[in-house]
Amino acid sequence: MIKRGFFSITLAAAAIALVQPAVAQNYKGTPKPTIRDYGSNGNVRTQQTTTSATIPATGTCGNPAKACLFYGGDFLNNPLGPTVANGLANESTVLVPGTPYGAATWVPFTVPAGEKWDVKGLFTNNLSSFGVLDQGVEPTSVAYWSINEEIFPGNAGIVIDSGTSPATSTPTGRAAFDTSEYTIQVTGLSIELTAGSYWMIVVPICTNTADPYCDGVFFESDVEYINTTPVNAFGPTEPLDASYLDSPAFFLSFDPANGPVGACAGLGCDAFSAGVLGKK
Question: How far apart are CA 127 and CA 204, in angstroms?
């Protein structure tokens, strides 16, 4: 049996004992003996924290902020108990490998009746030990993304569009469980969506075995509706309890995130911190 704790991060089981130096999304140097050898003076560029994801301008979301169509809201530690999940695996890394990903958290969103969306970008917010994207070859920073419809348990539904694209990894300024939150964002897309229900992913990729940062983890940030709408949520309300975890690494095929037998065992995972960029 696969233990849920391997792919969900909770208040009780989130002590990832890693010291996090200043790191960049691109690793290009010769491997050194230990992670502590890396830092702002190493062969990486130091990331700069941005507040754009925390206090977005009206009608914008993402990090860096751009015109927004949908955003599920900011991550907030769930205060309901020590066993409530606060994130779900979302990665293709040395620790969680797979094709096209090791684990992906699929987030639902809705294009309202009578609207047509011109999607220019997608993003997910992820709690990560290092936040590094690295393929070892150009483009060095990439993520896998997809928009699907008609997903149901055990079935991927219909792919509207997907691909592996250059991506940015930018700190949001939020942190929990010895991890920091990073926005993994792809832009330059051109996807037309008509009214209907969809699911999206943006999965960080770090699979270079010569890069010690690729031993890190990514958990897509959970959003809980605790007596209020999540901070900075924008656009159509994210459908609750409609997310899925698909993971070749954990032998799961579009497992519902919610519910007693779901990926989070009925504890959290009502919604996730992700968004769609573009215009109507």
Answer: 11
